[in-house]
Amino acid sequence: MPPSNMDDIQPAFQNQCTVGDRNGALEDYAGQILFESTTSTFRMYGKSMMYAFRADENGSLEHLYWGKSIPPTDDLRFLSFSNVQLCFDPGPYTQFEARKQIDMAASPLVNGEFVESGTDEWRSFESSSKFVPHDIIAIARRENAAWRLMRMQDLKSGRIDEFEYELEVSRENKKSLSPELSRLREHHPTPPRTSSGSEPHHGFHDIEMEHPIPQVGRNTKLLEYADLGTGDYRAPSFSVVYEDGGAICPLTYKGHRIIKGKLPMTAAKGRLPELRGSEEECSTLVVEMQDKVTGLEFDLIYTVFKHVDALSRRVIVRNPTDSEGLSGDVRIDKLMSATVDFHTMSNTNMITLCGSWANERHIQLQPLIQGKFVTESLRGTSSHQHNPFCALTNTSEEMIETVGEVWGFSLVYSGNFMIEADVSETGRTRINAGISSSTFKWHIPAGDCFEGPECVLVYSDRGLEGMTHAFHDLYRNNLIPSRWHNTVPPVLLNTWETTYFDVSHAKILEIAKIAVNCGVEMIVLDDGWFGQREDATSSLGDWHEDKRKFPVGLSAMVREINELGLKFGIWIEPEMVNVRSQLYAAHPNWCLNQQGRNSRCEGRNQLVLDFTREEVREYVISKLDALLTESNIEYIKWDMNRHLTEVYGNAISPQKQGEVFHRYMVGVYKVLAHLNERFPHVRIETCSGGGGRYDAGMLNFCPQIWASDNTDVFSRLAIQSGTSLIYPLSTIGSHITTVPNHQTQRLSTLKTRFLVSLFGNFGLELDLRKLSQAELHELTNYISKYKELAPVVLFGRFYRLWSPANSSDQEAYAWMCTNFDNDNIKAVVAVFLNKVEAGRYLPRLRLRGLKEDETYIVEEIFPNSSLRNRNTGQLEVGGGVPQWQTGRQAITMSGSMLMGAGMPIRLSYDGDSCAFVLREK
């Protein structure tokens, strides 16, 4: 039921929106949360987006709207009329409960409690000045009697804002107002009418309804958070089990708080990753819900951001100690961080990112039909196969990049997750996002609580492009560690594909001396440097240098690297252990595996350390602290090369084994948080067999993630395009590697490998000792150009101009970045031909994001020199004569021309590419 005491609500509301600004422009509401006490409606405003729901007559939260901003003067309750009672659809009350509500409506409210008629309390109240005559109650019953009584108590106590509406009175009863209601009218007169006779809108006036909002069952309503077993047969938001085996937990509205800024995750004790937000950037709403029988409490937490069309959601479950209804533990079997019910749309499509090892995050669009679709990971990581993201749209695949509405969901979590889409028989779609319920059970003892991970919701009315820009802005500004904001990372050379395990002091110095002359800024020592590591079968866990390979010690070699003018980074895999290691010999019980079982899986010859154990985390922290303290290491590549199996915590009680997956992830977060706090100058790049843990949770601790172990440019075009859907380019680890490619054996030009790597966190995995002088010279030019273009690419607006779905019949990609804050270059464009169709032309390339009335100098960089022999038809590459796409190296064109007419593009072979920079004239 809506609250009877508004004292705690109204001041918070006034802080968010004063009476005087309710008629302001919609953009003035950005970042604000408005509460309409007369209709129990909450509105949250983003940059140009609004999200709204209300507490209905039964205390449930009814979802109303999520889309383009709507003025606060518009009453949203009429949207509830799209709910229709269906046959066999359970209603909101049983007959007994409905009778009880009527009896309660005919009873006075004393200290927040209803008094039954005929009792001594009733007779005492009836003779007092607080008595509310039955004619008023009868009038108020037309919408919700109990709610109206509460409103009258607030009116009499003077707690209602002067612009909140009075009790609705039907026309036939207006002439026979009771003395009590007449007295209320005298203190709260009807607002003056305008010259046209209409009542002025002060933001939250009630609308006159001939019929009340229909009472419909839970299964046909749009709900904000859905329980299990009380008439809603769709996928629930949560599931709990009490000690008596009961699982019924209907939640009703208890109250709410509105807070300036972002409410930190104190219930999770800071262990989970989350977005940041100052009081100027965002506002937070905490809606308190309760199971009135057991006393179990749920806090639904919303934060809406001012500078983007985004909000975040999370849930806290509390088991209060002072509850009479509860005794002992409560077990959570399912807890979604966000639930959104969508009204019926035609041609609803769901977008996900899926793939496999070395083939991650391909954009997949599929129609949603009646039934359930689930994307999840059970691997202990967010996984190569699925990403904790989805989006809904009803726009066709050919148009979706720039046209139509998109609703995006991104879970800030790195472990097992689940996103489910449930399409009911009515055609409505429910999206649930949170921790995977398949591997999750959590016990909450009395007096304790549990807080789930955060889910980010983004709205766009400009297709995927608008959604991408919102996610990029939000994650760059409010998720990635702020010290890395707008910093260009050093150009690094990683030794993995150069030497694999065969590393030594002499080899690293030899490579470093060549690298520094090419413009490389950091050497990263990958696998093979520790223990007695000759291959993948030994030494994980023994984090000290191999004296056979580094006889004078790692710190001495690092000093030599620094003296060359280079920074130094190192590879580690702290979550893993080999059986052939000193660590395993000393602590075989530190692995995830049930003691007493002889069979277990080894992935890549390694086992997983049990990060739920404090002694394991302390060991890892001690080794990493020593490593980073003894040597001037400024970069860590944190790898994880297998998924979790035999997940059993030997230090955890049997009834809490369902908590191990989540506790493991929390343990990893704790170690990463320690490194961030103790060594803030160290840049961390996470990796999991490539892109197996590429998620927003990891970005809270590090500014970059290795996108994929597959560095082939033909594969990377799809991988990086999909990754860019929600993750900023500055986070995408992308390196130039050798050819034939080590994963696919395909060939590609150095130029194309450079251009693909340019649109990411740039680096090299090349054996520079094997390159010719001409190749070294070419590479040096590319590195120099990257340093010039990086501020535009990494911190600008990203546009997917072409992808195979919208680029004629040929598999072509075109990427573009703009940054008008940059002093020199305003935009960078690159085009890639994945697969040629002989005899067919590419369409003209229309640019986006430019200023129509601005004039630009368009300069092609690194032109092609291939030419087709007119006599034989043979394609002759490397003729030495530049083949400019526009006929010359630079042209001057208006933004209107470049975006409207476009540019001619002539590419000739698989892997061919071209690139341009744009400067304002």
From TrEMBL:
It catalyses: Hydrolysis of terminal, non-reducing alpha-D-galactose residues in alpha-D-galactosides, including galactose oligosaccharides, galactomannans and galactolipids. Residues 176-189 have a biased composition (Basic and acidic residues). GO terms for biological process: carbohydrate catabolic process. Residues 814-918 form the Glycosyl hydrolase family 36 C-terminal domain. The keyword Ribonucleoprotein does not apply. The keyword Iron-sulfur does not apply. One of its GO terms (molecular function) is alpha-galactosidase activity. Its EC number is 3.2.1.22. Signal peptide: none annotated. It is an enzyme of class 3 (hydrolase). It holds the Pfam family Glyco_hydro_36N. Residues 215-443 form the Glycosyl hydrolase family 36 N-terminal domain. This is alpha-galactosidase. It comes from Guillardia theta (strain CCMP2712) (Cryptophyte).
